[in-house]
What we know:
Blueprint: H1 3-8, H2 11-18, H3 22-33, H4 35-45, E1 62-69, H5 74-77, H6 82-87, H7 94-97, E2 118-121, E3 126-129, H8 133-137, E4 143-149, H9 155-164, H10 174-182, E5 192-196, E6 220-221, H11 240-261, H12 264-287, H13 294-300, H14 309-321, E7 326-332, H15 340-364, E8 371-376, E9 380-388, E10 393-400, E11 404-410, E12 417-419, E13 421-422, E14 429-431, E15 434-435, H16 436-446, E16 456-458, E17 461-463
Parallel strand pairs: 1-7, 1-8, 4-12, 4-15, 5-6, 5-7
Antiparallel strand pairs: 2-3, 4-11, 8-11, 9-10, 13-14, 16-17
Amino acid sequence: MNPNLALEITRRHFFQDCGVGLGKIALAGLLADGLSGSAGAALAEVNPLAVKKPHFPAKVKRVIHLFMAGAPSHLDLFDPKPQLAKLEGKPLPPSVIGGQRYAFIRPDAAVMGPQFKFKKFGKSGADLAEILPHLGEVVDDICLVRSVKTDQFNHAPAQLFLNTGFAQPGRPCLGSWVVYGLGSESKDLPAFVVMSTGAGISGGSANWSSGFLPTVYSGVRLRDQSAPILNVASPQGVDAKLQRDSLDLAGALNRLRLAGEGDPEIATRIASYEMAFRLQTSAPELMDLKKESKETLALYGADPDKPSFARACLLARRLIERGVRFVNIYHEGWDAHSNLSGNHKGNCTKTDQGAAALIKDLKRRGLLDDTLVIWGGEFGRTPMVETNTALGRKGGRDHHPQAFTMWMAGGGLKRGLTYGATDDLGFHIVQNPVHVHDLQATILHLLGFDHEKLTYRKAGRDFRLTDVHGKVVKGLLA
């Protein structure tokens, strides 16, 4: 026998192949009791989205991840470096760069100073760029981490690495691990929802894939316009009764197959059909933002009928209120290889108010204490300028994995904290480094998980989000 094949055989398959045992017993029970009552019991027995307890009492129950795809510049938004302004136009010392190579600039490229003025905000006196005035209003509620680092240099691998802990597609993402570990509190909406507001995501759908976990844990894409979820509306001429009868028949047959084979993908299929049926009612109600007060719409700066990042943030709040466990919002377009000033000013105009309003709204509703909000991209940007006449580029920055900034807010975190530090040029971390795996371990800790014990066995190995690395960053915890 192929040893790898043996590893893939479940106990249910073993008993079935022996000709006696659980599969046959379950099938006999279904046939004896009739499909309706026992079929529901059979499904409940393997319900992959049933609410589960974490390893220890959790600080937060749900996550909203605001992913700034393309990588915002820490040097121009969060980490002021006066020394860059003094060195503008001069090359960085070779001792700073070391052996680092870049995709679009030479190591001896000239320094570019900060593109925006910084000012202190809040009682904590945190330094932020002036183009983030709304974030400045909530800076005492957030934890600013200036010392994040990654192993990956290019967009797609770095996005996958931050989301899945691995640079190649095929591993479960953070949202999938969270739903796998905690289940879902929503019966009428997906446990894990993904939205995007921008031009495109380098890592694609692998960023919200369940990888080798059952596909029921994958993120469900919610569209900004027209039908929020494709293929949910009933075909013309199919009324609710006919659809319900069809689903009941398909469900009964699927449950028979599930009882015989024990394949978790069959349970996923059953759950997906039922979810799609309920979404026909829940999705339109969710998307009807006209029920929100004028004050709330003004807080976010959201037009209820116009897709935007602000509207997505408001939808995220509505989703978690309805029991959704994990929400990803991807805002693409931060990849400023040219005209960083114009790029970041435009993106901050689009995202600053909505992100800050989300914090304010969650706080006033009593949801911030048990919700985690994460904001950041896949890496930082270089202190050196990118100028390339052939490509028509000037005034940009290249990719920088050695140091970047993210912020988080919510239960279990210190508020008004600026954590970690980079050197005078924003090139290297000099205090409290936070590797991506450390960030992942800390997020799981806030959700009540020991990141080393939240595992899934595949091909004879127990896999986890943090691979064989990661430690909880205790300095961030309240």
